[in-house]
Design goal:
Signal recognition particle alu RNA binding heterodimer, srp9/1; 5-stranded antiparallel beta sheet; about 20% strand; about 375 residues; tt1808, chain A
Length: about 375
Amino acid sequence: MEIRESVKSPPEGGKDKKEKESVCIMDFIDQLKQFSKRVDSMKDSIQTEEATKTALIMPFFSMLGYDVFNPQEFVPEFTADVGIKKGEKVDYAIMQDGNPVILIECKSITEDLSRHDSQLFRYFGTTSAKFAILTNGVYYRFYTDLDDRNKMDSDPFLTINILDLRENQVPELKKFCKSVFDIDAIFSTASTLKYAHEFKETFAAQLENPTDDFLCLFLQDCYSGQKTQNVFERFRPVLRKALNDYISEMMNDKIKTALGGNGGSVSAPDTSSTDAPSQSDPAAAPQKAQEIVTTEEELEAYFIIKNLLSEIVDIHDITYKDTQSYLNILYKGNTRKWICRLRLTDNQKTLIIPDEEKKDIKHTLEDIYELSQYKDAFVEVLNRYL
């Protein structure tokens, strides 16, 4: 779960307030990390909707500050009559001044949420609630009525995965805490969040397969010829590669800055030939290379190991090299001086440490935060190279 804990220094004028807000966010981040570990450890043993509610969903809203055992604040089986159908019930309603402000529809952790938003849609228009949440204990989808008043939008303005919460989502989720909950404040940012999400999806689609209109935007200042379909097909892989290379370069610059100018790199997939497109074969299919993606979890694990060894060697001497199979943690970038290897997947996390004969000693991890338990082993390996 990538949540960076750096906080910029506030200006002197509002220093006290900013410091309090920073401490509050930091505390909330710590709570989220602990809760994420809880969900990850329990998710495979939960099979029913009731178990999902009890083990995951109620504790989540308790973390947000709500008294889940107070029926005046957190109402189970809240009645939401729909047309001629009386007695329709939503799983939970969060109340404020005696009125529902958030409706919560729960599903089993084993269910896909995409098939269940219509049920919540029916409930939304019959109550005074301004927000609705659809969840299976891992994914939480937040809805409101941006498009039509009192009619729930078909798309959520915020979707979070509690096992992979992004840094920019923390302040938005924090707004749903009981202590700071403000309908107007959340609604004012919901529109921005919704359209920002749609922009990201559109851009991601263009990175994968640029449309003719998108190509025109780039060709208008650098190509004076007639823009025929053959021209589009000729330049489509070029633009795709250029955009992905640019993003890769930005990521590498950020990583190098964080590592003090050293460390590994992230490569974009080679989506086309590096040569200019052939005039005689404008629609030639690009050759795809295997893609190596350094995940956020791998980077976080690398930083953990780097910090564990910072008392032994210069922190810049601990680097990494990513491969298709594992993340290699190295001393001074030398692949023969590897300290450990990490295989991190959704289903299994394995730490590999070399013995004195460079034979693999494998350890199974519950999560990457267990790496601190192996500090002595890392130090022992590193000392062999000094």
